[in-house]
Structures are given as C-alpha cells and as structure tokens.
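call fold(seq) -> tokens
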Amino acid sequence: MVTVRAPATSANLGSGFDVFGAALGRPADVVRVEKADRTTIEVTGVGSQYIPEDPDKNTVGAVAEALEAPAHIEIDKGVRPASGLGSSAASAAAAAVGLNELYDRGLSREALVPIAAEGEAVVSGAAHADNVAPSIMGGFTIAREDGVTAVDASIPLVTCLPEIVVSTRDARGVVPDGARMEDVVEVVGNAATLAVGMARDDPDLVGRGMDDSIVTPARAELITGYETVTSAAFDAGATGVTISGAGPAVIAACRERDRQAIAGTMLDAFDDVGVDARAYQTAIGRGAEIF
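ret:
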C-alpha cells in the first residue's frame, strides 16, 4: 500500500486563466492505493456523499486506467468538492503519484501531469492541467501544452471558502467569448507581473498581478458577497484578491503579518451578507508527498 497527501490548489490566480496554478499548504486529500485485479474506489471525508465511487465517473479511475495500474483506492477528502480549490485535481494528483510508485512506472512528476489531467476531464469535461500541475509538482506553476514550469515560492495566502456551490461547468459557461484588445493587453501585463512576483517571493507584485478584467467579473456574479469580501480583504492589508479557480473560494495574497486579520475580515464580510464561510491561513506549499 502507498499513501499520498496531495494539496488543494488555486488555479488562474486572476490573470492566468487556464495557465497559472499554486499549491496550497492546506487543505489536502489523502489517497491510499493497493494493488488489485480491478479498480475499486472508496471515498470518505468532506463532501464524500457527492462523489461517485464508480471508476468510470471518478477522477482516480481514469488515472488508474491511463497508468494501466488497477488498484483499490481509498480517498479521504480534505478538499471540499465544488470549492474552487482543486478538489478533483487533488485526488487525481495523489492517485497518479501513488500508482506510479506502487507499480514502479518510473514516470517523472512532470510526466504525471497530463495523466492526472485526464482524470480531471471526467469531472470538468476538459483535461486542464492548471490544478493538477501544482498539486503534483508544488509551488507556482505555469501549464502550457508543451509542458509545465514550476517555481518555488512562499507567498502568504488566505483562502476563504463560502458555503456556496459553483460548479466548474457553470463557471466556464459564463466566460466571455471575446475581449477588447485593451483588456487583453492589461491582463497580459498583470500576468507577467504576477509571475515575476512569484519568482521574487514578492507579495506586492503578486497582488498587483492578480487583477483581471476579462473572466473574473463574470464569475464574480456567481458568488454572493464577492465585492464586499474583496473590499474588506484589501482594507485589512491584502495585496491582491481574486476568485480561486472557478470559485466560490476567494483567495488573497498578503504579507504574513496581515494574514490573520485578513482571514477574520473576510469571514465577517461573508457573514454580513448571510453566508457561512471557512478561512484557511496558508501559503504556497509543496506538491504531493508519499508517506
């Protein structure tokens, strides 16, 4: 048996739609894999009642099939489904790393990314790597069709998860079909600023680079209280605030000294609009770990 902890992630980070991702220190999924004649799945933990155990409908089933590695797979969910924190990606990433180890496939972490992304496609309908890449490799990642670039970073973060459900399919459905050239230029500049900030471990640059005027405004309409929470986080010292992945989680970059105040302020802001929420004081962290 092999046990793997794979972290939650935040994709997009505002300006890096379908490209940027970051591993979070917490929460995380824990997946145990054991060789078997056929793949079976058992799911426990947060939101497990909503996750199918049929291998044809679960991310890890697709991963096991792609690796030709049948196994009994136990998933202990720490990342809530439909959270915007890469819940399905964490399970897929952990399964890919665990099965690669269990069956001694010898694949590199980067080579496991597209395999885990195929698992993601079972849930989201498309094999995007922006969540699975950081969950496997850790740090800040830039996912392109020709591979993944990973950068070690230690930016303090707060993620605030409201008790609202926004499915990835719904969030993709509101993405605009086009954009004005001036908006595209602005977002490219912001994305470049964010990437440099990650390389320098500079929360000010990262925060400035999160701003996005194309996708985020449309998705914000799906999150009750988003503008109120964003404003409150900035008032408490956040350097940047945006939607985490497809939402509804909201993520703030900050300095470590401000992290606790920002978390409390974001919770209060959601409470003011009648929405329960949970905050994670975290930072960009490591990728999947084998125990």
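The domain at 2-151+286-290 is CATH 3.30.230.10 (Ribosomal Protein S5; domain 2).
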